[in-house]
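Per your request, structure below.
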């Protein structure tokens, strides 16, 4: 690979998915992995197999699909973790084991209670074991940016001697600043004698809002792999955002003299896919993928744009996959146009799923004149769980009064076609609707979070609701969409109830959900 080529290592499914509220089901992870392959990332870190059986299964399922990129799994420096990663990733033609251990004084003293030499022995042993299993081994000294420089160089030298092929330098707590990180990378380049034998990598967190800037400082100083996530999701303030770092390298190619292999026209669809799955929507003014990123409101800007786009626009919306107009379909659009747009948005549905989503689209087109990308995403996200039964929402009637509890009446249709009605009171209309659903399904959920997002624009926009609920000690996330936001919330809860009931039937309650009970690092 040319020295100008930056490898993009995507950790949306590991560091991103580990963040609260971002857990994904197995089928959601597979959908994201396929989208990352279409985006042409070089490496997908698919998870941390030792964290839970669910993580192991997800990494294995992604590796077995063999989408194209290298599939990587994370391991602590112990044989159990390393062997689990190997078992999970070996199905992919290209696979990698990523081992890490913390090296900073703070972590050595307070977390690991290990001396410097012990940490080096542990890193060397782990890298050697991983190299016995695979040819591609990455080593990360966690909290590298707060580690003494000379000790960091010692650890990195030892890991390379032991067989590491990539060495990744994490700014685990988002503490460094660009000039300091530039110094750190130049120090390693000058003081690690075998540094040319490996790919040097960077992994930044965004606690001070500098993850992208710090990653760019690292590549200017010699790093050739960037670890990042879609929409910058991740622990606390998140990780380096893939779309921002990739577009910075591309837009300022004359400055950096570097390139990535990313198909940038897939950036926006991939961002939308991840936000609709996780319910974490980037702010409107987020660079590259925010809804306002290419909107020019000020009159003086609009005038300039009409004269020549380059007056105020440094990237074209179509370069990142934003259609010139996001108004895509209407009442008379056919199944082909519908399916083609879904594929462009990163959804690969089978015929049955397309037909089901198309029926929902037609129903929506009767209520709403213009259908936007956001509406299509909401339809697809909503169509899956709720309409796979056992219960389907036939009708919902809600009454609210100031100073009195709200009341809701629902009618659900069971698999055998039987209609069951019930009603309940609640503090508000959503609580009343959920309680009425609980009376029919016999499941009691505890609502932990209710997020409402407008799927598109205009007064008749659909409300897209993501709920996080607890049931039997586990956390579940559900999606629902409707032009009526109470109905959207009820659909989101019904989706979860259906999933729990299907899981109970298979005797594996919760197995189809993001797993909240795993260990994280
Ligand atoms: O932030 C971090 O240090 C990590 C490592 C495991 C690479 O995520
Ligand atoms: Zn991290």
């Amino acid at each position: 690979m040319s020295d100008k080529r930056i490898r993009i290592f995507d950790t949306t499914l590991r560091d991103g998915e580990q963040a609260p509220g971002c857990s994904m089901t197995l089928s959601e992870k597979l959908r994201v992995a396929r989208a990352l392959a279409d985006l042409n990332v070089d490496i997908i870190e698919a998870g941390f197999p030792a964290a839970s059986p669910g993580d192991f299964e997800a990494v294995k399922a992604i590796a077995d699909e063999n989408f194209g990129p290298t599939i990587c799994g994370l391991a602590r420096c112990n044989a159990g973790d390393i062997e689990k990663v190997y078992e999970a990733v070996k199905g992919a033609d290209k696979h990698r084991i990523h081992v890490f251990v913390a090296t900073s004084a703070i972590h050595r003293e307070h977390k690991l209670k290990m001396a410097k030499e012990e940490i080096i022995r542990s890193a060397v042993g782990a890298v050697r074991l991983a190299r016995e299993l695979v040819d591609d081994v990455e080593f990360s000294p966690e909290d590298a940016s707060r580690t003494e420089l000379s000790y960091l160089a010692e650890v990195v030298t030892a890991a390379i001697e032991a067989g590491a092929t990539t060495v990744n330098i994490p700014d685990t707590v988002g503490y460094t600043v660009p000039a300091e990180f530039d110094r750190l990378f130049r120090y390693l380049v000058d003081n690690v004698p075998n540094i040319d034998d490996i790919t040097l990598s960077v992994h930044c967190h965004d606690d001070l809002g500098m993850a992208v800037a710090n990653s760019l400082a690292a590549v200017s100083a010699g790093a050739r792999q960037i670890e990042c996530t879609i929409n910058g999701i991740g622990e606390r303030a998140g990780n380096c955002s893939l779309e921002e770092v990739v577009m910075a390298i591309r837009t300022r190619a004359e400055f950096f003299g570097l390139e990535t292999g990313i198909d940038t026209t897939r950036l926006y669809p991939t961002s939308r896919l991840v936000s609709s799955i996780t319910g974490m929507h980037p702010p409107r003014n987020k660079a590259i993928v925010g809804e306002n990123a290419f909107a020019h409101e000020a009159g003086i800007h609009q005038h300039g744009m009409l004269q020549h786009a380059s007056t105020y626009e440094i990237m074209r919306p179509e370069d990142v996959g934003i259609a010139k107009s996001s108004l895509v379909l209407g009442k008379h659009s056919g199944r082909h146009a519908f399916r083609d747009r879904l594929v462009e948005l990163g959804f690969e549905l089978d015929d049955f799923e397309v037909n089901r989503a198309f029926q929902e689209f037609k129903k929506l087109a009767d209520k709403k004149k213009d259908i936007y990308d956001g509406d299509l995403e909401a339809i697809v996200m909503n169509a899956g769980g709720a309409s796979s039964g056992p219960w389907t929402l036939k009708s919902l009637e809600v009454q609210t009064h100031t100073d009195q509890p709200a009341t809701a009446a629902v009618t659900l249709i069971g698999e055998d076609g039987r209609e069951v009605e019930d009603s309940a009171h609640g503090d508000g209309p959503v609580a009343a609707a959920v309680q009425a659903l609980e009376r029919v399904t016999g499941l009691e959920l505890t609502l932990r979070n209710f997020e409402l997002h407008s799927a598109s624009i205009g007064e008749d926009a659909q409300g897209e609701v993501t709920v996080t609920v607890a049931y039997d000690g586990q956390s579940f996330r559900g999606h629902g969409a409707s032009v009526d936001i109470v109905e959207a919330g009820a659909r989101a809860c019904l989706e979860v109830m259906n999933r729990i009931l299907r899981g109970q039937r298979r005797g594996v309650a919760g197995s189809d959900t993001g797993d909240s009970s795993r260990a994280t690092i």
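Confidence is low (pLDDT under 50) at residues 510-517.

Regards,
D.
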